[in-house]
Amino acid sequence: MISRFVLATRNAKKVREMSPLLTPHGFELLGLDQYPNAGPVEETGATFAENAAIKATHAALATGEWAIADDSGLMVDALGGRPGVYSARYAGPGCTDADNNAKLLDELKDVPEDRRGAGFVCHLAVANPTGLICLNVECSCRGRIINDRRGVQGFGYDPLFLVPEYHCTFGELSLLVKSQLSHRARAFQRLIPELLKL
């Protein structure tokens, strides 16, 4: 049985968020920061699935390990699905989470509250050590974009994404709660039974 996966990211917050989803099932999750010789990869895909596959294949080939890649993003109804696959770099090259949040709020400044529906999407791809993609899953969760940042938990657009049934943003929810209902949590819930079969 496979016991270890490399997560195709150097984002420590992502590794910290995803590790508790896998460790109860006997899987260890390492970030690419543990592999300094694994160079950067360009996300040239037009979809979350394509980008996840690119990253998983790259991580597997660079490390010789089984790799999991997550490509996630925010799709805002009033913006025709933007920022989508460009979520992490929405405000331009080298932008920060704060830059992306500011751009999103600016684009939605004239959009009424009842038209601010949005969904977070997560696509997970798993590659074997030869870079072959063996598994794919995609899940989402719905909410809406509020006018002001709330909360300091999470990362990215979390402080702006309100989960209506909790009356909280992802930025306000504890990691324990978020790990039950987020797009990533749902994707991992679907993925884990398949990982256990590998």
What is the string of helix and strand elements?
Answer: EHEHEHEEEEHH
CATH architecture: Alpha-Beta Complex
Order of strands, main sheet, comes to 2-1-3-4-5-6-7
- In the CATH scheme, the class would be Alpha Beta
| CATH topology type | Maf protein
The structure class reads alpha/beta
How many domains is the backbone divided into? 1
* Mean of all residue-level pLDDT scores: 94
User: Outline, from the CA principal axes?
Assistant: globular
**How many E-type strands?**
7
Separation of the first and last Cα atoms: 7 Å
- Per DSSP, the total helix count is 5
Evaluate the radius of gyration: 17 Å
Residues in helices, as a percent range? 25-40%
- Proportion of residues in extended strands: 15-25%
Spans of at least 5 consecutive residues whose pLDDT stays below 50 are: none
Q: Biggest sheet, open or closed, and with what strands and sense?
A: 7 strands, mixed
Q: Explain this structure to me?
A:
The chain is α/β, with parallel strands linked by helices and 198 residues long. A hairpin with a 5-residue loop joins strand 4 and strand 5 (133-145). The protein is built from five helices and seven strands; from the N terminus they run E-H-E-H-E-H-E-E-E-E-H-H. It has a seven-stranded mixed sheet with strand order 2-1-3-4-5-6-7. It has one domain (4-195): Maf protein, CATH 3.90.950. The chain has helices spanning 12-22, 48-63, 97-107, 175-181, 183-195, and strands at 4-7, 28-31, 67-76, 117-127, 133-145, 161-163, 168-169. Helix 4 crosses helix 5 (183-195). The chain is globular.
